[in-house]
Amino acid sequence: MKIVSVEPIHISVPYDYGGPLQKADAIPWRNMETLFVKVTTDEGIVGWGEGFGFSICGTTRYAVEHMIAPLAVGRDPSDIDALITDIAKKQHTGGRNGPLSFGISALDIALWDIKAKRAGLPLYRLLGETRTIERMPAYASLLRYGSVELVERHSGNAVQKGYTRVKLHEIRTPEVAIARKAIGPKVQLMVDTNCPWTVDEAIAMARSMAPYDLAWLEEPVWPPEDYAGQARVRKEGGVAVAAGENAGTFADIAQLIDTAGVDFVQPSVTKIGGVSGMLRAIAYARTRGTKVAPHSPYFGPGLIATMHLNASMPEKPPIERFYLDLQASPFGDWVDARNGEMRIPQAPGLGIDVDESVLAKYRVG
Predict the structure, then answer these.
(1) Cα–chain-centroid distance for residue 60?
(2) What's the pLDDT tens digit per position in 194-215?
(3) How big is the chain by its Cα radius of gyration, in Å?
(4) How far apart are CA 265 and CA 243, in angstroms?
(5) For residue 175, which of 155, 159, 196, 160 has the smallest C-alpha distance?
(6) How far is 18 from 161, CA to CA, in rounded Å?
């Protein structure tokens, strides 16, 4: 079997923000940008991957087209490690964390999709789970609203929809306080701040948020590779610390675990090297006793791959589900959470047929 084509497909899909668009983010998102990567073999088997994502999609697409696809076409997709390692070595001067590695992650996910399809197994079963896992818990990962009123509305609404876990993307204590009030004392609450503070600022903010019983405070320090600083926040802030979505290599994951000492490590399948990179990160975290909470605010193959990875893990961590409604989904309602749970596909591979008419309608370029 050989790869005959590697095609990146960038789509931009409008979504319901759930209120007036705020200026809480540096780059306000008006559409959900996703980079699908379609890998076709000479046997007619198609694998789907996803490379991170959002505003970097166009650059990642270029990396796939010009740096990855020429080295993958004509190769045997069955030896995933050999193919991925060869491409990474040949193109390592393009960067070990960024669009090139995001594209390599997409290729890896697609190769695992192909491998599981050839084996006739859903990916989570290929990864070692012997039981049939039909559903997995999810948590509502809210947008950054920068508004007490919107945080109160959407966090309370998420609980009404059946979520028992809610994550904010806020950077002020009043929004955290109102969320706790809205969801009640029994619902798990996390806060992802996306690297806004110095170490001393992060410690002060962690202490101010600690009374609201956070399951974790995520990425509190700038820059994200200040591992010693994160260790201080964990020690002095009074809350558990989570990080890892910005990790692009296994070395980053090791530093987060061994130096930063995070309570939860959060590798992203679309950044860290696909399914292969995730498996290595998960295995290492397990040897160190660190909990894994995969990062997955996506709506493409990266989300589905994460669902399979979580289902394959003995601890069954909840799936991060971005709390918004797309105008259309190439995966239909497979990306929806019902009563705080997501369905795990049972067909071979990622287990979901891609609606390519949706890709065509929302394609960019």
Answers:
(1) 16
(2) 999 999 999 999 999 999 999 9
(3) 20
(4) 5
(5) 155
(6) 15
Query: Contact, 56 vs 363, CB < 8 A?
Result: no
Side-chain half-sphere of 80: how many Cα atoms within 13 Å? 19
- In this predicted structure, what is the pLDDT of residue 17? 75
Q: Provide φ and ψ at 303, rounded to 5°.
A: -65, -45
Is residue 248 a contact partner of residue 271, using CB atoms and an 8 Å limit? yes
Partners of 342 in the β-ladder:
136
How far is CA 14 from its chain centroid?
20
Do 137 and 109 contact (CB within 8 A), yes or no?
no
Among residues 153, 216, 157, the alpha carbon closest in space to that of 189 is found at 216
Mean pLDDT, rounded, for 54-58: 93
Query: What would the 3-class secondary structure string for 7-47 be?
Result: EEEEEEEEEECCCCCCCCCCCCCCEEEEEEEEEEECCCCEE
Encoded tokens for 46: 């198609």
Please report, as a single letter, which amino acid is at residue 36. Answer: F
| Whether pLDDT at 79 is above 70 | yes
> Taking the complete model, does pTM exceed 0.90, yes or no?
yes
DSSP 262-302: -SEE--BTTTTTHHHHHHHHHHHHHHHT-EE--B---SSHH
Contact (Cβ atoms closer than 8 angstroms) between residue 193 and residue 164: no
CA 81/CA 63 separation, integer angstroms: 20
pLDDT tens track for 159-168: 999 999 999 9
Nearest to 61 by CA among 28, 21, 25, 12: 12
Q: Shortest CA distance to 352 belongs to which of 338, 332, 336, 337?
A: 332
